Amino acid sequence: MASRKAAATGPGTGLAAAANRERAHLELAELGPLLEEKGEQGAAGPPSAEDPPCPAAREEEEEVVRVLTLPLQAHHAMEKMEEFVYKVWEGRWRVIPYDVLPDWLKDNDYLLHGHRPPMPSFRACFKSIFRIHTETGNIWTHLLGFVLFLCLGILTMLRPNMYFMAPLQEKVVFGMFFLGAVLCLSFSWLFHTVYCHSEKVSRTFSKLDYSGIALLIMGSFVPWLYYSFYCSPQPRLIYLSIVCVLGISAIIVAQWDRFATPKHRQTRAGVFLGLGLSGVVPTMHFTIAEGFVKATTVGQMGWFFLMAVMYITGAGLYAARIPERFFPGKFDIWFQSHQIFHVLVVAAAFVHFYGVSNLQEFRYGLEGGCTDDSLL
Ligand SMILES: [Zn+2]
Fold first, then answer.
1. 35: CA distance to ligand 1 center in Å?
2. What does the pLDDT look like over 108-158, one tens digit per residue?
3. Could you check whether the bond before residue 323 is cis, i.e. omega within 30 degrees of 0?
4. Region Disordered: which residues (predicted)?
5. Is 76 annotated as a binding residue?
6. Residue 207 CA to ligand 1 centre (angstroms)
7. For residue 338, how far is its CA from the centre of ligand 1 (angstroms)?
């Protein structure tokens, strides 16, 4: 750690200049040394002797220089780091442009300005929820979505049992959906909040974030399959098992370190799109067995179609980075593709909940009976 910082601080002249700067002024130039990339490390080693007389003497000289300067550099770097951490702790940081971000924070090069600097303090990260930067919209869209689904979930669980045919079973089924939604949305806002903490933290939370999407999709399938195939336990079990296997596979893929890199943006969109589109098979099954009219009325297919359109649009905008790709720098703070994707996810999950609630009501209206052979 110290050597990295020593390396990043560079040869002594910069230090003296840096030390003279005003302490209360957290300028980019000051953040710069902390943001320098790994590639620069080599350049900051011991100052090399210009024209070495002989290898042995040069080595000795280098050793002496290293012994003398490194601890000093490390000490200054440590002081600098402490000062930086202290300022971050106090909330005295400014947004910075994309160019000076460290590699691990470089995600979307169409967002030119307004990024948070790396802030290795959870307190600072959480305080940044109330500041304006590139992640503010991403945090709030899913923080509010989380509150919405938490409330909906609690209300559903507290609903009197008389409104259900098999209260315990049905509440577990709805519970799976709410658990998926609440976990997905909370992992998401947490990830966007601590994304700038450090490379390790950002990587860990991005894995949780992606796993959350898989959990939401899996959870969404549960009540839909439960009510759509109410009287056909066998296909219901088969479809449920398939979506669980696919969902767990997506979670495993999300643990792959390079999954979160900008290069694999399309892979990510593809994995979750594929998981969602696995719903096409049971949809076809239901529509063929019941006919188009019943599928759209009783089966609520219109709502589920709307939900699918929202998810697919969201994933498409996310993968293609629309609109910021057409106007780089114009959507740094608001209306960037990721925020639109977030809003569409919350809206789609809500539409899904509405459709599933209608399915539940319909089965309740039939008094849960499976006597009508024309219905799955
Ligand atoms: Zn997100």
1. 24
2. 999 999 999 999 999 999 999 999 999 999 999 999 999 999 999 999 999
3. yes
4. 1-60
5. no
6. 11
7. 6
Cα 134 to averaged position of ligand 1 atoms, centre (Å): 12
- Between the CA of 213 and the centroid of ligand 1 the distance, in Å, is 10
Name the amino acid, one letter, at 178.
F
Domains of the chain: 122-366 (1.20.1070)
Strand pairing partners for 96? 115
Q: What is the pLDDT of residues 26-52, one digit of tens each?
A: 444 444 444 444 443 433 334 444 444
C-alpha to C-alpha distance for 176 and 219, rounded to whole angstroms? 5
CA distances from 145 to 241, 342, 348 (A): 28, 9, 11
Question: What is the C-alpha to C-alpha distance for residues 217 and 275, in angstroms, rounded to an integer?
Answer: 7
Place of tokens 């008094």: 367
d(CA 68, CA 59): 14
Q: Check: CB of residue 143 under 8 Å from CB of residue 189.
A: yes
The CA–CA distances, whole Å, from 3 to 8, 15, 104 equal 8, 15, 20
Handedness of CA 130, 136, 139, 140 (dihedral sign): positive
Q: Tokens at residue 182, please?
A: 């609440």
342 annotated to bind ligand: yes
> What's the rounded Cα separation, in Å, for the pair 89 and 124?
5
> Which residue's entry shows tokens 């990830």?
191
Among the listed residues 51, 45, 31, the one whose alpha carbon sits nearest the alpha carbon of residue 93: 31
Q: Report CA(340)–ligand 1 centroid distance (Å).
A: 10
Whole-model pTM: value is 0.76
Q: For residue 210, how far is its CA from the centre of ligand 1 (angstroms)?
A: 9
Q: How far is the CA of 252 from the centre of ligand 1 (A)?
A: 19
> What is the rounded distance in angstroms from the CA atom of residue 134 to the CA atom of residue 323?
15
Rounded CA-CA distance 57/96 in Å is: 45
CB 149 within 8 A of CB 181: yes
How far does residue 167's CA lie from ligand 1's centre (Å)? 34
